[in-house]
Specification:
Strand content: 5-15%
Largest sheet: 2 strands, antiparallel
Number of domains: 1
Structural class: alpha+beta
Order of helices and strands: HEEHHHHHHHH
Number of helices: 9
Shape: globular
Number of strands: 2
Strand order of the largest sheet: 1-2
Radius of gyration: 19 Å
Low-confidence stretches: none
Distance between the termini: 29 Å
Length: 248
Amino acid sequence: MSTFWSAVVLIAVVSVHELAHGLTAVALGMSVRRAGIGVGPAVWRGVIGRTPFEVRTIPCLAWVDVDAAAFRESGRAAQALVLGAGPAASIVLGMGLVFVAGVFAGRALGFAGAVKVGLCSTVVAVTGTAGGLVAFICKCLSGEVRVLVSDVHGVIGVVKGLAEALALWGPEVFVAVGGLVSVAVGLFNLIPLPPLDGGRIVVSVLKGAVSDRYLALFENCAALLVALLVVVVNLKDLIVLVFGGFGV
C-alpha cells in the first residue's frame, strides 16, 4: 500500500507542475490542445473543461500540450512565464508540504514552536536540495560518472524512497519527503538544458540573437544529454530494485 501512495504522490507532484504550465498559458491567451497522465498507449480519453485529457498505460508522468504556434508568437516574456510557472509551482508545493510536516512534527512545542519547526524545515529543505543539485552538476562537469549511481534517482528510486519513508517513519516524514521531491523537480527543471524548462527559457531568450542553426544544435545535443541521463538513472534504479544494488 505504501508503494501505491508513493506513486500517487509522485503523479500529483508532476501534475501540479504541468498544471501550472497549462493554467499560465491559458491565462496569457494560449490554448491547451490536450493534457494527460502517463506514457504509452491511452487507456482512457475524455474532456476536462474544454481540454481533451487522457490517461496512458504507465502513469509515471504528466504533460500539457500548449498550442505551439500560439506559444511561439506570444513573445519572450510570456514564454518565460509559462515555462517558469511549472518549476515555481513545484517549489512552492514542496515548501508547503515540508512546512506542514514540520508543523506536525513540532506540535508538542505549541503553536509558535511548531511554526518555527515548520519554517526551519522548509529553509533547510530548499537550501539543502539546491546545494545537492549544484554539487551534482559540479561532479558531472568534472567527469565523476559515479554520481549517477550513488546520488541520483529516477521514477523507480523516488517511489521506492517514498514508500520506505511511509513504511518506516510514518506519514509526517512521508509528507516531508514528498515535499523534497517536489522541490527537487522544480529546481532540476531550472537547469538550462533543453528540453527542461530552464533550457527552453534560455533558447527563448537567445532566439534572434544567436543563429537558428547553433540554437538547434544546442537543443539537440542538450536533449540527447538529458535523455541519456534519464535512461541511465532509471536503468540504475531498475537494476538496484531487481538485484539489490551496485555496492557503492
